[in-house]
Design goal:
This is RNase H type-1 domain-containing protein. The chain has helices at 13-31, 43-49, 58-71, 88-98, 112-125; strands spanning 2-3, 36-40, 77-81, 104-105. By secondary structure, the chain is mainly alpha-helical. The longest helix is centred in the N-terminal third of the chain and has 19 residues, at 13-31.
């Protein structure tokens, strides 16, 4: 599990999502997680990454470029749009990342708060 700081210049969920996708793609490439499916509710992010809309500013343009650079190391990346209620855990992790200056990697022993909402997310959506 990876929870990374997204930097002081990230003040919205679109930039937080782009940064998370960049890190996820890098981790997937290094750990053999290929192909990679990215789930999210933010259609704007998916449209930016597919080149369907222009980046609104330099920060977004840089993050899109970094994402595409990481994606190029994978055989396949696809996006799946989900409803907001199905993306609660990812949104909570994004908010944590937006308000931290640290990058955390957890292999075991997740903090209880993070483990609890991930457990609810996975068992509530993927385990019958």
């Amino acid at each position: 599990m990876y929870v990374g700081c997204v930097g002081n210049n990230v003040h919205n969920i679109t930039l937080a999502a782009l940064n998370a996708f960049r890190c996820a793609a890098g981790l997937a490439a290094s750990e053999g997680g290929d192909p990679l499916e990215i789930e999210g509710e933010n259609q704007t992010v998916f449209r930016l990454l597919r080149g369907e809309i222009p980046s609104p500013n330099e920060t977004t343009r840089e993050l899109v470029g970094q994402c595409l650079g990481e994606f190029s190391h994978l055989r396949m990346v696809w996006f799946r749009c989900v409803e907001p209620h199905a993306n609660v855990a990812a949104n909570r992790l994004a908010r944590i990342a937006m308000h931290t200056e640290q990058t955390w990697f957890f292999v075991d022993n997740l903090p209880a708060q993070i483990a609890e909402f991930l457990n609810v997310d996975v068992n509530g959506h993927y385990v019958p």
